[in-house]
Structure formats: structure tokens, C-alpha cells
């Protein structure tokens, strides 16, 4: 049994575990000695900042009004903040055992990749990220489906008695499910309850719930809202009205990916440095599309 001192030390470490989820892995930095993976939370908060930049500088007044209406927002400012928050949390489903153990998947296997994976894993475990043991069987699900399964519970639905990502019957929370299901959707398909339930079983349980809650809070912090206030900002009822919204979410996520050439962020940086860096990245990325467009 750990003594009191160890418990609080573990809590301290656990509180930063979320910073060790990886977002992008790119080995081309290795020769320079730079980090080969970019933290997921940095890319998530950057996506939130990108949406704010898009909203303010690219989306026209007419489209802003349409978006606010589709989201059934209290005001355009509520829609703007909710959209930025949702852009940021759209990849929350990546923060789970099945995606995290796939570090570097899709890249050519090499001793450099093996070393990078093992270094990341050791340090992430030490920071308290609840990774499964090497070689353990891990339930898999599409991260996008995991997002739909977990997000309503992280953004204001605390209704008891609903399991496996089942939709609650509280009308006030209906919009949370509509919004969570609209993320990552590029067509009019509705996510089937069975798909969500299957994804729910791959979420990794309470230890990963804590990691995801920390990530969602980081995005809320960046955008300037309390994650659980989402039901007060928007109440969408019709997913077919959210097509333009889904497209902006996807664009924000695309522009938020860490660029190896520009240098990846370090989980050891302070929140202030990373948060300012995310805003700068967002400003530059949106300026580039404005010039290109
Ligand atoms: Zn609810």
C-alpha cells in the first residue's frame, strides 16, 4: 500500500498524463534530435483556436448566422465558442488504449521507429498514462465512434441509468448527442446505437475517462468556456442542418496537425507556452489558406 506521500505524488503525475497522448508521429525530426511525436492535446487546443480564426476571418456573416441557427445557439457568440470547443474535442476518441498503442502505425517499420515507440511508452507510463501491457489484447473501435460514445458525458450529461453510451432521455441534453454525433461525419448518416455501444466498450474504462476529461478541460480552457456549459450554448436538434458545421470541424482538425518541419511541441512545456503556440499556429495556418484562397 502506498503511503499518503506516494498517493499525492501519483495524483500529481496523473494530472499530466493526458499530455502524453500522441497526436502525430513523424520520424523525420529524429536526425535533428527533436521530438518525433506531437502531443494530442496540443493539436486539440490548436483545432479550437483554428475554428476561432476561421469563424472570425473566413466564414462570412451569412454563414455565421446559418451555423448559429443550425446549432440552435443562444447567440452567434455562443455558436462561435461552442464550434471552437467542438472542433477541439473532435479527436477525443483517439485518447484511448486502442489508438494509443498504434504509435507509428502506417509508417515503415524500422529500428528508429521501434526506439521512438519504446521511449514514448516508457515516459508516458511514468507520467501515468494508463497504457495496456505490451502484447495485451486491446478492444478496438474507430476513434471517431469513441468520440460519439464519450463526448456527451464529458460535456454536461450526467444522467444516471444510461450505459454503453446510450442516449439519455433528458431533452436538455439532446443537443449534446446531436453535436457529438455530427463531429467527424461528412455525410448524412446517423450513427447507429450499436456502433456507439461497441465503441463504448473500447474506451478503456475510468482511468482513460480521467485522461479524456483532462483533455476536454484543456480545450475548454483554450477556448474560454467550461466544458460542461455546452448545453447552455447550443441545442441542435437536426443533424442534417450541421453539414457545413462538420466541414468546418474537419478543416480545423486538418489545419491543427503538428508540422514536423516546424518542430513538434514538448509535453514538458508550460501550459502558457503551448497555449500561445497553438494560437500562433492557428493564426498562421488560417492566413495561409486566405492567401491561397
Ligand atoms: Zn443526460
Q: Helicity level, as a percent range?
A: 40-55%
Count of individual domains? 1
Mean pLDDT: 90
Summarize the main sheet: 2 strands, antiparallel
The structure class reads mainly alpha
Low-pLDDT stretches are 1-14
Molecular shape: globular
CA-atom Rg in angstroms:
19 Å
Order of helices and strands: HEEHHHHHHHHHHHH
How far is the N terminus from the C terminus? 61 Å
Please provide the count of β strands: 2
If you consult CATH, what is the topology? Hypothetical protein af1432
CATH architecture: Orthogonal Bundle
Strand fraction equals under 5%
> What is the CATH C level class, in words?
Mainly Alpha
The helix count comes to 13
Bound molecules: zinc ion
Features:
single chain; 293 residues; mainly alpha; Hypothetical protein af1432; two-stranded antiparallel sheet; 13 helices; 2% strand; binds zinc ion
Describe it for me?
- By secondary structure, the chain is an all-alpha fold.
- It has a single domain (41-96, 141-292), classed as Hypothetical protein af1432 (Orthogonal Bundle).
- The chain is 55% helix and 2% strand.
- Helix 2 (40-57) packs across helix 13 (271-292).
- The longest helix has 22 residues, at 271-292.
- The protein is globular and about 50 Å long.
- It binds zinc ion.
- Zinc ion is lined by residues 157, 159, 168, 170, 173.
Describe the structure in brief.
Helices cover 55% and strands 2% of the residues. The chain has 293 residues and is mainly alpha-helical. Bound molecules: zinc ion (ZN).
Amino acid at each position: 500500500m502506498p503511503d499518503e506521500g506516494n498517493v499525492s505524488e501519483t495524483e500529481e503525475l496523473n494530472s499530466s498524463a493526458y499530455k502524453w497522448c500522441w497526436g502525430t508521429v513523424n520520424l523525420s525530426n529524429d536526425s535533428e534530435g527533436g521530438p518525433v511525436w506531437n502531443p494530442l492535446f496540443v493539436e486539440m487546443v490548436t483545432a479550437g483556436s483554428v475554428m476561432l480564426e476561421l469563424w472570425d476571418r473566413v466564414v462570412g456573416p451569412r454563414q455565421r448566422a446559418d451555423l448559429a441557427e443550425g446549432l440552435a445557439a443562444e447567440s452567434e457568440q455562443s455558436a462561435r465558442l461552442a464550434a471552437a470547443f467542438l472542433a477541439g474535442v473532435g479527436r477525443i476518441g483517439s485518447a484511448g488504449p486502442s489508438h494509443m498503442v498504434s504509435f507509428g502505425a502506417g509508417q515503415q517499420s524500422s529500428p528508429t521507429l521501434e526506439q521512438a515507440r519504446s521511449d514514448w511508452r516508457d515516459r508516458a507510463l511514468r507520467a501515468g498514462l494508463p497504457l495496456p501491457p505490451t502484447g495485451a489484447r486491446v478492444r478496438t473501435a474507430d476513434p471517431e465512434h469513441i468520440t460519439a460514445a464519450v463526448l456527451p458525458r464529458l460535456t454536461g450529461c450526467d444522467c444516471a441509468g444510461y450505459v454503453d453510451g446510450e442516449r439519455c432521455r433528458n431533452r436538455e441534453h439532446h443537443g449534446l448527442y446531436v453535436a457529438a454525433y455530427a463531429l467527424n461525419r461528412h455525410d448524412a448518416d446517423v450513427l447507429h446505437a450499436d456502433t456507439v455501444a461497441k465503441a463504448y466498450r473500447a474506451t478503456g474504462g475510468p482511468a482513460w475517462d480521467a485522461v479524456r476529461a483532462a483533455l476536454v478541460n484543456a480545450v475548454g480552457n483554450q477556448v474560454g468556456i467550461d466544458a460542461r456549459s455546452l448545453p447552455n450554448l447550443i441545442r441542435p436538434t437536426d443533424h442534417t442542418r450541421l453539414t457545413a458545421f462538420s466541414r468546418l470541424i474537419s478543416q480545423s482538425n486538418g489545419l491543427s496537425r503538428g508540422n514536423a518541419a516546424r518542430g513538434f511541441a514538448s509535453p514538458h512545456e508550460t501550459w502558457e507556452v503551448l497555449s500561445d503556440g497553438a494560437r500562433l499556429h492557428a493564426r498562421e495556418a488560417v492566413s495561409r489558406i486566405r492567401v491561397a484562397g
